[in-house]
């Protein structure tokens, strides 16, 4: 699995704001919004483009467009905070949704919502979820996509733990990971350390 760590200063300053426990919910959401822009920007660098003729006010020339705009899939809840900025950067995209909640005791994901196109053959997908911890949630989501014929999945995360990366690698699915950082480990609650806490709670409040 290709792993790209976006160590750009613009990304790392936003990540620092998200990590800081003193950052309030509004500032946390703003930092996630801006960080997502940098992550998706880097992910899109390898997107195939096609040329087509356009007319400027002066002359005819060639323009550029995405050859195959992606499907964006935010993983609810926390991935919702990445959806707007990804769609703003890639307005040609369409969007699907997956709702997952990690069980506090088993740490395995429970699926509660799924709204995806039936056939994803030939369509690139960008999965948006700030946290890759044990990898259970993103594995579940990526399997849903693969079952629909998707062979081109890019996972966009803010933080990834080594356990989660290993779990995704073991799936053998056609995946690429773009993240702002790879953190040290998971604690006994399977929270990423040093991490940033619970990205869903910090955006939207506790459940
Ligand atoms: C968090 C996070 C990921 C998942 C990561 O969501 O947003 O989806 O846990 O953990 P994993 O890699 O061990 O599966 P959570 O289940 O807390 O739901 P929320 O987004 O609604 O807060």
Query: What fraction strand?
Result: 25-35%
Mean pLDDT: 97
Derived from helix and strand composition plus strand pairing, the structural class reads alpha/beta
Spans with pLDDT under 50 lasting ≥5 residues? none
Quickly give the CATH architecture: 3-Layer(aba) Sandwich
Q: For this structure, what is the CATH class? A: Alpha Beta
Largest sheet: 9 strands, mixed
Number of domains: 1
Terminal Cα separation, in Å? Answer: 34 Å
Counting DSSP H or I runs of 4 or more residues, the number of helices is 6
- The topology string of helices and strands comes to EHHEEEHEEEEEHEHEEEH
Unique ligands: 1-O-pyrophosphono-5-O-phosphono-alpha-D-ribofuranose
Task: From the alpha carbons, calculate the radius of gyration and give it in angstroms.
Answer: 17 Å
Folded structure, characterized:
Helix 4 (136-147) links the parallel strand 9 and strand 10. With 207 residues, this protein is α/β, with parallel strands linked by helices. It starts with a strand and ends with a helix. The model has no long low-confidence stretch (mean pLDDT 97). Helices cover 33% and strands 31% of the residues. The protein has a single domain (2-48, 67-204), classed as Rossmann fold, CATH 3.40.50. It is built from 6 helices and 13 strands. It comes from Micromonospora pisi.
């Amino acid at each position: 699995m290709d792993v790209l760590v976006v160590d750009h200063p613009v990304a790392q300053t936003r990540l620092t704001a998200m990590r800081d426990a003193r950052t309030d919910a509004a500032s946390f959401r703003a930092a996630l919004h801006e960080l997502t822009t940098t992550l998706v920007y880097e992910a899109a660098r390898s997107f195939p483009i096609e040329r087509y003729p356009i007319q400027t006010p002066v002359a005819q020339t060639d323009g550029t467009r995405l050859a195959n705009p992606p499907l964006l899939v935010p993983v609810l809840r926390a991935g919702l905070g990445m959806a707007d900025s990804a769609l703003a950067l890639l307005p040609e995209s369409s969007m699907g949704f997956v709702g997952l909640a990690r069980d506090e005791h088993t740490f395995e994901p429970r699926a509660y919502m799924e709204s995806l196109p039936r056939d994803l053959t030939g369509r690139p997908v960008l999965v948006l979820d700030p946290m890759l911890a044990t990898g259970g949630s993103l594995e579940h989501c990526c399997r849903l996509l693969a079952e629909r014929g998707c062979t081109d999945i890019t996972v966009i995360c803010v933080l990834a733990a080594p356990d989660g990366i290993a779990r995704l690698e073991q799936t053998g699915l056609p995946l690429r990971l773009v993240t702002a950082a790879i953190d040290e480990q998971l604690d006994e609650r399977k929270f990423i350390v040093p991490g940033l806490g619970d990205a869903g709670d910090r955006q939207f409040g506790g459940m």
